[in-house]
Write a structure and sequence with these properties.
The structure holds two protein chains of two kinds.
Chain A: H1 7-24, H2 28-34, H3 39-47, H4 66-79, H5 83-100, H6 103-114, E1 120-123, E2 139-143, E3 146-157, E4 164-170, E5 180-186, E6 192-197, E7 208-219, E8 223-224, H7 230-266, E9 268-269, E10 272-273, H8 278-306, H9 313-343, H10 349-359, H11 366-388
Parallel strand pairs in A: 1-4
Antiparallel strand pairs in A: 2-3, 3-7, 4-5, 5-8, 6-7, 9-10
Helix pairs in contact in A: 1-4, 4-5, 4-7, 5-6, 5-7, 7-8, 7-9, 7-10, 8-9, 9-10, 9-11
Chain B: E1 2-6, E2 9-11, E3 18-19, E4 24-25, E5 32-34, H1 36-52, E6 56-62, H2 68-76, E7 81-85, H3 95-109, E8 114-118, H4 129-137, E9 141-151, E10 154-161, E11 164-171, E12 174-178, H5 190-198, E13 202-204, H6 244-262
Parallel strand pairs in B: 1-6, 1-8, 6-7, 7-13, 8-12, 9-12
Antiparallel strand pairs in B: 2-5, 3-4, 9-10, 10-11
The chains are: A alpha+beta, B alpha/beta.
Chain lengths: 389, 263
């Protein structure tokens, strides 16, 4: 399908496709096995200006938006959904600064992120808080000109490899989301250390670690927005970043689908390629249709985000939930089409199936996405009724 | 440090198909790329410019107008400017006429310190144009270079040999053809690609160059291709296994009738 990309967007797509083919493909199996962070790829992406695509030109970026993020993330994810995250997770960490940072904060932090010289991470989840943001326990108390942070963040993508962390903390003891704020914490700040590195099912080339804060002091200028706006920071960040996760899902699905079609054309049973059997053909047709529908929804949501529309939460959530469910289904079917070979590590589809699963879980589980969608549609209906009266 | 890199656009395949009627390469349906060995030459040019701290890298190619695509690819990598030698009169050039035309282009371009080429093109595989250009320009040349180190007006070149390597101290200007061991070519950047899209490419034809009409194109090419064919696959050898005495005896037994038949 033609999505009417601009010349610049076509160039970005072409470049990311080249990086994926020439640099990521030869490494993906090894990095999936070892769980090593893809520093070499980070360097390539940085030198190719990819880290700056969503950052405004005045802060050293390329001036694109969520749509450009989607194009890049999708292309990289077609080959490896884990390595692509080394790129996409940095954007997730940068969005709070981009959206709520002061001009000074933006100048200081966005330029090295745009050049890829530094990576960012976003830290919200804790052992007892994730979907329920109001339950976070990591405390930040103001002491003179500094915040003193204590607590542990869990499952933080780019944890340990990132230099700049957007951390959601509790600044008021009062329960609920109103006591929450967002702080920028730099790596190597005394009192800020990293816990165990997680051993994951998929996206294994992406590093996931605990962040541990013990009397970690950061200047109060590191506060993003105002105190008590942490929940808004997190939600607006997700509104912007969810199309990116959805694009990762579309990429993984497309990668698995391409492998499945190729295999079905080559594999012969009963003296014919299995692609000639209707049982396989209908599977392929459904997979292709689902992927295209997901892509169309993701691109539409990303374009809406970039239009500056205020009410994008529902659409971002729809894109994320639909694309990730498609990715899971398509990758499972791809393994099925490859049969026994699909189950073996010699073929990439079992990895794609493992990688796909996380897209239904992180940046808000698909159940949370459905809650967001449901509450938006119910509110809309009530508002219409009020107007009608 | 002014560096000139000579590149060639080639079909993207090492398994080229041949038109049996005309004995020429079938180019239709085959995408074109920069000759892979030339990518190492471009990278080396960029690295030498970076290590010198100043100067320019210019790419030059001879060919039909579509070679502009290859030159833009080079510009996206960070090359400063690109020159295309293109004219109907250049068509049908063999390595002799190509070297002659490129040398004329380089003379017109003027001041340069280093000319770089890939060791050979993957379509013709002759490895003649680089050395041919150096001869016509009257400058030193080193082929199969795997390491280049700048030292003022001289350059140290490590030449790859079958049994090791030669280290040569070369006065500049000079021409070097490079092997893939020399570096790892970079990928383009987004900004580079955008700049390349808009860049002006200089195109020189016959009237722009100081060339003798009899030395260019098909007329200037002494090479005549009689026939092109895929070589027949060699049959597998025979392996004699066992004790040395026995196997030598077996070998002699096999060889004698063959040698007799040859005589």
């Amino acid at each position: 399908m033609d999505y009417f990309l601009t010349e610049e967007q076509e160039m970005l797509k072409e470049l990311c496709e080249q990086i994926a083919r020439e640099k990521i493909l030869p490494m993906r199996e090894e990095l999936d096995e070892s769980g090593e962070f893809p520093w070499e790829i980070v360097k390539v992406l940085a030198e190719s200006d990819i880290y700056g695509i969503y950052i405004p030109e005045e802060y050293g970026g390329f001036g694109g938006g969520a749509f450009e993020m989607c194009i890049a993330t999708e292309e990289l994810s077609k080959v490896c959904g884990g390595i692509s995250l080394a790129f996409a997770a940095s954007a997730l960490g940068a969005y709070p600064i981009l959206l709520f940072g002061s001009d000074e904060q933006k100048k200081k932090y966005l330029a090295p992120l745009a050049s890829g010289e530094k990576l960012a991470a976003f830290a919200l989840t804790e052992a007892n808080a994730g979907s329920d943001v109001g339950a976070i326990e990591t405390r930040a108390e103001l002491d003179g000109d500094e915040y003193v942070i204590n607590g542990t963040k869990q499952w933080i993508t780019n944890g340990g490899v990132a230099d700049i962390y957007s951390v959601i903390v509790r600044t008021k003891k009062s329960t609920g989301v109103r006591g929450i704020s967002a702080l920028i914490v730099e790596k190597d700040t005394p009192g800020f250390t990293f816990g165990k590195k997680e051993n994951k099912m998929g996206i294994r080339a992406s590093t996931t670690r605990e962040l541990i804060f013990q009397d970690c002091r950061v200047p109060k200028e590191n506060l993003l927005g105002r105190e008590g706006t942490g929940f808004i920071v997190a939600m607006r960040t997700f509104d912007k970043s969810r199309p990116g996760v959805a694009a990762q899902a579309v990429g993984i699905a497309q990668g698995a689908f391409d492998e499945a079609v190729k295999y079905a054309r080559q594999r012969e049973q009963f003296g014919k390629p299995i692609a000639s059997f209707q049982g396989i053909q209908f599977m392929l047709a459904d997979m292709a249709t689902q992927i295209e529908a997901a892509r169309a929804l993701v691109y539409a949501a990303a374009r809406m985000v970039d239009s500056g529309a205020s009410d994008v939460g529902k659409n971002s959530a729809m894109a994320k939930v639909f694309a990730s469910d498609v990715a899971m289904k398509v990758t499972v079917d791809a393994v099925q089409i490859l049969g026994g070979y699909g189950y073996m590590k010699e073929y990439p589809v079992e990895k794609m199936m493992r990688d796909a699963k996380i897209t239904q879980i992180y940046e808000g589980t698909n159940q949370i996405q459905r809650s967001i969608i449901a509450s938006a549609v119910i509110k809309d209906s009530a508002a219409k009724e009020r107007k009608g009266k | 440090m002014n560096i000139l890199v000579l590149i060639k656009q080639v079909p993207d395949t090492t398994d080229v198909r041949i038109d049996r009627e005309t004995n020429t390469l079938i180019r239709e349906g085959v995408p074109s790329i920069i000759n892979p060995f030339d990518m190492y030459a471009i990278e080396e040019g960029l690295r030498l410019r970076e290590s010198a701290g100043s100067g320019t890298v210019t790419v030059m190619s001879m060919g039909p107008p579509q070679v502009e695509g290859a030159l833009r690819e080079a510009l996206a990598l960070g090359v400063d400017d690109a020159i295309l030698l293109s004219d109907r009169a250049f068509a049908g050039s063999d390595t002799w006429a190509t070297s002659y035309t490129l040398a004329a282009g380089i003379r017109k371009r003027g001041a340069f310190d280093i000319v770089l080429c890939g060791k050979q093109a993957i379509d013709g595989d002759t490895a003649q144009v680089g050395p041919g250009v150096a001869k016509l320009l009257g400058i030193p040349q080193v082929a199969y270079v795997r390491k280049l180190t700048l030292d003022g007006a001289r350059c140290t070149a490590e030449r790859m040999m079958e049994d090791g390597s030669d280290v040569l101290d070369v006065p500049l200007p000079a021409l070097f053809t490079v092997v893939k061991e020399i570096n790892e070519p970079r990928l383009p950047s987004l900004k580079g690609k955008m700049k390349a899209k808009k860049a002006e490419i200089t195109v020189w034809g016959v009237s722009d160059l100081d060339v003798d009409d009899r030395e260019i194109g098909l007329d200037g090419s002494p090479t005549r291709v009689m026939t092109i064919f895929a070589p027949e696959l060699r049959k597998n050898g025979i392996v004699f296994e066992g004790e040395v005495d026995e196997t030598v005896a077996l070998l002699v037994k096999e060889l004698v009738p063959v040698l007799k038949a040859e005589i």
